[in-house]
Queue: 3 jobs
Job 1
Amino acid sequence: MKVRHSGGEGEKVEVPMTPMIDIVFQLLVFFIMTFKIVSQEGDFNIKMPLAAPSEGLPDPNKLPPMKVRMQAMSSGALAQISLNDKVMGTSFKSLHDEIHQVIGDDRGPGSVQETAEIELDCDYNLRYEYVIQAVTAVSGYLDGNGNIVKLVEKIKFSPPRPAP
C-alpha cells in the first residue's frame, strides 16, 4: 500500500495556546473558590507538669478555687448568693467586698490575683442579668483614677441545675 503525502515532510502542526490558557485559568479559579481552610487539629495551649509535685506545704500564693452559688426563685429572680458556703444575701456589693478581701491589693507577677479562680454555680432558671452582675462583681472594679483593677480573671461556670 502506497501512502501519498501532500506537501513536504517538515510540515508543522500548530497547537492553539489561547484555549489552553483559558482552561488553565478556569481550573485555577475553580480550585481557589472551592478551597476550604481548616484549622489545625490538636493545637492546644496546655502546660503539662514536668514532674510529680513534691510533698510539702502548699504554695501560700495560690488560692484554692472559690465557688459562688446563686440560687433563684421560681420567677427567675435572685434568691441568695453564697461564696464557699458563706451566705452573702442578694447583694453583689458584699460579694465584691468579700472577693476583694480574699484577693487583696497585691498585683503583679506571682501575686494571689494571678492564681485566683472562681466557679459560678447558678440555678437553671436564674435570669441572665444576675449572672452578668456576678461576673462584674468578681472580675474587677474601677479605682478613684478611673483605672481598671482586676480581681479574678479565671471564671468558669458549672453545669446549670434546676432550682428546688
Job 2
Amino acid sequence: MRPRASAGTIAVAGVLSGIACVLLALFAASSWPRLLAPLLGLDRQGSLAAELPPGSAPLTLDGPPLARFGRLEFYLPPFAPERSTLAAEDLGGAVFSGEATTSGVSNYLLTLDEAALNRFVDQWVTDDDSGPGLYREVWIDLQPGSVILFADVNLGLRWQRAGLLLVQDGTGLRPARLVLGNESYALPDSGLILGWANNVATNAERALEALVVTGPLPGEARVSQVRYHPDRVEIHAQATYPVPPSPDTGWQPLEPGLELRQMDVVAQFGTERVTIVRLDPSLVRFRVGYDPGSQRRLSTWATRSGALLAINGGFFTPENDGIGMVVSDGQRWGTSLGGYAGMFAVTAAGEVSVRWLTTWPYHPNEALAEALQSFPVLVKPGGHMGFPAGTDEGLPDRRTVIAQDRVGRILIIVAPSGFLSLHEMAMFLAESDLALDIALNLDGGASTGIWLSADEREVKIDSFTPIPSVILVETR
C-alpha cells in the first residue's frame, strides 16, 4: 500500500505547479507579443501608424545662417557632467548652423538624422558599464511629431523587444502607447508599467532641458524648440547675453520734441555713463514742482505727476527749504541768489531759458510761471568753460545739469555713477559736440535722478533721498 501524502506535501506540490505554469506562460508570452500583452493587462489598439501624430513644419533660423561649423561644446547631466566636445563628423548625419543677426541673441539649429541621433545616445546616454539590467540595445525610431524608444527588456526567461511611443506635447514628450511588434497597446491607468513610461518621458524631457550648447557665437544656448520628423530631429537652441552699451548711442528720437543720447565720459576715477535728454521747448511744457513740507523721492514725484520726464531740482536746507528762489505755478518762494548762481526759468508766455545771474539777473517784476535757481554755472554764455580746476576740492559725485544749446533747446544731463568732479563735468560739457551756450549745475549726490518713460523706452534712476523740488517735462 502506497503511503498517503501529508497536507504539507500537497501544498508544496501545488505551489511548485503554480510557479511552473507562470514560468511556462511567461516563456510562451515572451515568444509571442500577442500572448504577452493580455498577461500584462494591455489593451491592443491596432496598427501603430494610426497612432502617430501629423507631421510638423521644419524649423528655420530667423536670419541668414552663419557658415556651418563642425564643433560644439556641451554637457548633459548626469550622463556628461563635464563639458565635452562634439564634432559633426563624429556623428555622421549631423548639421550644425548658427545665426546672430539680433544683438544680444545667438541661435543654433542642430539637425540630426536617425543614425546620428542614435550614435549620440549610444556614446553619451547608454551606460555600457552597468552590466545586466532591465534593458539593452536602446534604439530611437524617429516618427512624425514623436519618437519610439525601443529596447530589449529583460523578462527573466528571455529578452523581449518592446517600444514606448513618446508624442510631442508642447515642448515636452508624453508617453502615448506601448509597442510590441508592429502593433500598439494602450498604457494602463496605473501600476508599474505606467510609472516606468512616465519616468522614461520625464528623463527624456530633462535631458533636453539640461542640454547646453556653446559655439562660436556669444552666450550659452539652451533648447527652446524641438521638431521630430520621420528622417531627422531638429533642435533649436537660443542664448541671450548682455550687450555692452555703445560708447555713444547718438541721438535717438523718442517723442515729438524729445531725443535721448547716452555716452561714456572717461574721468580720473572711472568711465561715467552719461544720459542726455534734448528737448524742444516749442513741443513740450516745463513745470517746477516744489513741496518743502512733503519732500519725496524722484520716482514718487514722477509717478504722481504723470510727467514724461522728471529730474531733481536745486539745493535745499536741512529743513527742506529750497536754497535760492523757486517759482512753481506762478507762486514764488525764497530769495534770489547772487551773480555766482544761475536760474532755469519759464515765463508766463512760455519762453524757456537757462541764465547766468551775473549777465541776466532776476528782476522782481518778471512774470515767471516756473523757475529754479542753483549753482555753479558750469558753462558760461557763449559756451565757455565756467568752472576751472581748483575751484573746489575736485571730488567726484553724482551730477545733474540743465543746459541750453545755441538754438534754444533745453538739455538735461545726468551722470549717476559718481565718477565726475564738477570741473570734469564742466570740461566735458564745454568741449563736447552738444553745442551748449550755457549749463547750470543742479543738486547732485544723493539727490541726483532722472525718470523718463517715452515711446516704450525707459530710463529710471531714482534719487537716493527725498527731495523738495523737481523739474517736470510734459507733452503739450
Job 3
Amino acid sequence: MPADHPAKPATGIVHLGLGAFFRAFGCIYIADAMAASGGDWGIVGVSLRSPDTRDALRGQDWGYTSVALTAAGAVPRWITVLNDVLVAPEDPAAVLAAMTDPKVKIVSLTVTEKGYCHNPATGTLNRDHPDIQHDLAHALPVSAPGFLVRALQMRRAAGLPPFTVLTCDNLPENGKLLRGLVLELARLLDAGLADWIAAQGRFPSTMVDRITPATTPADIARVADMTGRPDAAPVMHEAFAQWAVEDDFVNGARPDLAAAGVELVANVTAHEHMKLRMLNGTHSALAYTGYLAGHETIADTVADPVFAAYVRRLWAEIMPAVTAPPNVSLSAYADALFDRYANPNIRHRTWQIAMDGSQKLPQRILGTLRENLDAGRAAPGLFLAVAAWMRYVSGTDEAGKPIDVRDPLATKMQAVLAAAPTPAAKAAALLALREVFPADLADRMQPPLTRAAETLWSMGSSAAIAALNKANP
C-alpha cells in the first residue's frame, strides 16, 4: 500500500455484501464525501458468504486500487475508507456487534436480488426460503434481512436509535421493498419490534449506476504494473457513476453525499425506473441474446451491427413506459448508454450479467412489458429477450454446448424445460413459474412469447434479431 495513505476515519457505516460493485462505487462516494466535509464515516464491510474479499484485503490494511477505465486509458486511485471486513458465516455475532455499535448510523447493502430472500413476482418475503427458516429459529442469522432485523432488535433492547438501512441493489423502489421485508420478518419474531422499526426506522430508496466488470487475474497483473505495487483486490469500473438517494436518514445522520456528487432527492422512483428499464433491462436482453450468438462481452455484442440496431429498438419499446426525471432527455440517456456499452475497455461479460435472471427479469423487463400490454403497445424485442432468457436457462447453447447457469431456480427451470418437447411448451412451462411470472401477466404474455420462442429456437439468436430488425425497423 502507499506509504502516504491518509489516516483512517472511525467507523460510521456497516456494509452487507462487500463485493466489487460497492468498492467501485459506494466506497468512493463515501471517501469523497469525507474528503469534502469530514466526518467519521469509515466502513466495516461484511461478506455474507465467502472469505475471499477479506483474505485479499487483510494484508493491505483494507486498502485497494480502484481503476477507472476511460477511453483514454486506465486511471488508478488508492481507496482507504474500509476499516475491517467481517465474514458472517465465521462469526455472525461479530457482525451483529458491529451493526449495534452506537457510532454506526447507516447499514448499507449490495446483496443482489436473490439476497433479499423474497418472491420477485410479489415483493413479499419468501417464508419458505431456507435462510429465512433458519433466521426465524435462531438468534444468529444468515440472511441479509435476518441480520438487519436482529441488529435492530438488539439496538432497541439497548435503548439505541435504529440505523438507516441504505439498499444499493437494482430493485424498483428498493428502500420501500426492503422496509416491507424487514417489517414482515420482524413481525414474525416480535410485533413490538416491527412497530418500533416502522415508526423510527428509515429506508431511503436509491438508484445506483456504474458498470463494474469482474476483476480478472490479468487485471491484477495490470494494476501491479501500472502502480508499481501488488494489490490482490483491485476493482475495475467505467468512469461514469450516478447515485440518487432519497434524503431520509435517521436523525439526519449521513455523510455529505451532495459534496461527493450524489443527487439527494425527495423521491427516487423516476431515476430508478429509467435506470432499471433502460440500462438494466437492455443489459439483460443483450446478455442473453448476445451470449447465445457467441459474444463474450457487451462491447463485443453492440459492435455487431445486428445487436446495435436491436438495442436501439429496445429503447424505442422501453421509453414509452418510462417517466423521465426532471431535466432528463430519455433519448440522450439512451445515446449515452450506447456509448458506455461500446467502450472496448469495459469487458463486462454477457455470462456475468446473465446470472440470476429469474430474480432480475421482474423488475428489469416484466414491468415494462406489463405497461406496454396495458397500453396496447407492441414489444417484440422485449418478448424476444425473454425468449432468449428461456433458451439460455435450458442449460445448453445453440451449438448444444453446456451453459453454466447460475440462478437460484436453475434446477427447477431445467427440469420443467426438459419435460417440454417444443418451444411453445417450454415457454408455457416457464410462464407457469409463479416465482417469476404473476398469473395474470403470464396469461397475457403467452401468445407473443410463444411466437418469439418459436422464432428464436428455429432461427437462432442472431438471425431472429436480424429478422426482427428488418420487419420492425
